[in-house]
TrEMBL record:
<keyword id="KW-0413">Isomerase</keyword>
<keyword id="KW-0732">Signal</keyword>
<protein>
    <submittedName>
        <fullName>Thioredoxin/protein disulfide isomerase</fullName>
    </submittedName>
</protein>
<dbReference type="InterPro" id="IPR051063">
    <property type="entry name" value="PDI"/>
</dbReference>
<dbReference type="GO" id="GO:0006457">
    <property type="term" value="P:protein folding"/>
</dbReference>
<dbReference type="InterPro" id="IPR005788">
    <property type="entry name" value="PDI_thioredoxin-like_dom"/>
</dbReference>
<dbReference type="InterPro" id="IPR036249">
    <property type="entry name" value="Thioredoxin-like_sf"/>
</dbReference>
<feature type="signal peptide">
    <location>
        <begin position="1"/>
        <end position="25"/>
    </location>
</feature>
<feature type="domain" description="Thioredoxin">
    <location>
        <begin position="19"/>
        <end position="140"/>
    </location>
</feature>
<dbReference type="GO" id="GO:0003756">
    <property type="term" value="F:protein disulfide isomerase activity"/>
</dbReference>
<dbReference type="InterPro" id="IPR013766">
    <property type="entry name" value="Thioredoxin_domain"/>
</dbReference>
<keyword id="KW-0677">Repeat</keyword>
<feature type="domain" description="Thioredoxin">
    <location>
        <begin position="264"/>
        <end position="386"/>
    </location>
</feature>
<dbReference type="Pfam" id="PF00085">
    <property type="entry name" value="Thioredoxin"/>
</dbReference>
<dbReference type="InterPro" id="IPR017937">
    <property type="entry name" value="Thioredoxin_CS"/>
</dbReference>
<dbReference type="GO" id="GO:0005783">
    <property type="term" value="C:endoplasmic reticulum"/>
</dbReference>
<comment type="similarity">
    <text>Belongs to the protein disulfide isomerase family.</text>
</comment>
Length: 391
């Protein structure tokens, strides 16, 4: 069959236009980061740590993040044996994969440890420096700690326990369990998911209770056994027996208070929860209202933290001990919860957690970048006091 020159020209234009469109779609969300489907995701996670952006092509925030994500990928993906792989998953294409990981909004950023058993959700600023700091803290810093023999180098297992038909009865047989029965497609479940993750983080060091979830679209036997008729259903179990159904507010504070009340009723001491916010000592709590006035006429060493941050939780007892050690000196040890007082943290250019800064008479003096041991922190305070006396 013969084609005219104009027909061939039109066909060529259409072909190359299609290539440009395909290329542009890929470029929209970065060509340097690795694109995963369900199979390659598992292979990639098994091979290395992965920092993954779960996105949708139509999402404006995803498009805004894409160039920065691509720059991050250029930094960490240039070597095959790098400490982390920067990757992405299109949730409009990989709906089952994103449902498995309870992706409820776009973009969602998660850093998975090698093997995928644990992950850390990123919720900080989306500029390149903040993302690099997060990777540095979670990946590179962890390796440096391991090389130095730091016993805290290994992260705990994922705090939220995943149950199914096979492991349910054996897992909950001993102890207290607060279980979320859910379906991945359920809108209320999606809204609850990050709060439920946070609740699990809150009780991660407390041995009296476990926070868990079970997907009723996959574990139909157990969900039918406990007459789950709506999602999410939240049930409290003690030593394998269903004790109560939770029907209150689904805020973190309400769920936490309910958990503590149930534990107290079961004979657990309510005040034994190892939580940053429950520790009471000489550390001053600073807020948007009192931050500037409190710093105006003294030397203050401030920890900017987030309650979900693992490194912050590990530092918390040392920070409290530091406050006790220097209480007779002319310095105050303080803290700011950046999830509650974001404007203070933004004004002080906090890019990662914990961030430690020292102030004199309301003016910033220095960031602390050293070891977080009690001895080194004390030495830093002493040097700051000596410098003040020299001025």
């Amino acid at each position: 069959m013969a084609f005219s020159h104009s027909a061939l020209l039109v066909a060529s234009c259409l072909f190359f236009s299609t290539l440009v469109i395909i290329s542009k779609a890929d470029d929209d969300h970065g060509s340097a980061s690795i694109s995963y489907d369900a199979d390659s995701f598992k292979a990639g996670i098994d091979a290395n740590r992965n920092f993954v952006m779960f996105f949708a092509p139509w999402c404006g925030h995803c498009k805004n993040l894409a160039p920065t994500w691509n720059e991050l990928a250029k930094i960490y993906n240039k070597d095959d044996d790098g400490p982390v792989t920067i990757a992405k998953v299109d949730c409009t294409e990989e709906t089952a994969l994103c449902a498995d990981h309870e992706i409820t909004g776009f973009p969602t950023l998660k850093l998975f440890e090698k093997g995928g058993k644990t992950f850390k959700r990123y919720s900080g600023k989306r500029d390149l420096e903040a993302l690099k700091n997060f990777v540095q803290e979670q990946v590179v810093g962890k390796e440096e700690q391991a090389e130095a023999g730091n016993t805290f180098a290994e992260e705990k297992e994922e705090s939220l326990i995943t149950l199914n038909d096979e492991n349910f009865e054996a897992t909950i047989a001993t102890g207290a369990f607060f279980v979320k029965f859910y379906a991945p497609w359920c809108g209320h479940c999606k809204k609850l998911a990050p709060t439920w993750d946070e609740l699990a983080e809150t009780f991660t060091k407390y041995k009296g209770v476990s926070i868990a979830k079970i997907d009723c679209t996959r574990s139909t036997v157990i969900c039918k056994q406990y007459e789950v008729r709506g999602y999410p259903t939240l049930l409290w179990f003690q030593d394998g027996k269903k004790i109560a159904k939770y029907q209150g507010s689904r805020s973190h504070d309400a769920l936490k208070e309910y958990t503590l009340t149930q534990l107290e009723a079961a004979g657990e001491e309510k005040n034994t929860l190892e939580s940053e916010e429950d520790v009471k000592s000489g550390v001053e709590d600073l807020t948007e209202e009192n931050f500037k006035s409190f710093l105006s006429s003294r030397l203050v060493f401030v920890k900017f933290f987030a309650p979900w941050c693992g490194h912050c939780k590990r530092l918390a007892p040392t920070w409290e001990e530091l406050a006790g050690k220097v209480k007779n000196d002319e310095v105050t040890i303080a803290k700011v919860d950046c999830t509650q007082h974001k404007s203070v943290c933004d004004e002080n250019q906090v890019r990662g957690y914990p961030t430690l800064k020292i102030f004199r008479n309301g003016e910033f003096v220095a960031d602390y970048k050293g070891s977080r041991s009690l001895e080194d922190l004390q030495q830093f305070v002493k040097k700051s006091l000596d410098l003040r006396d020299e001025l």
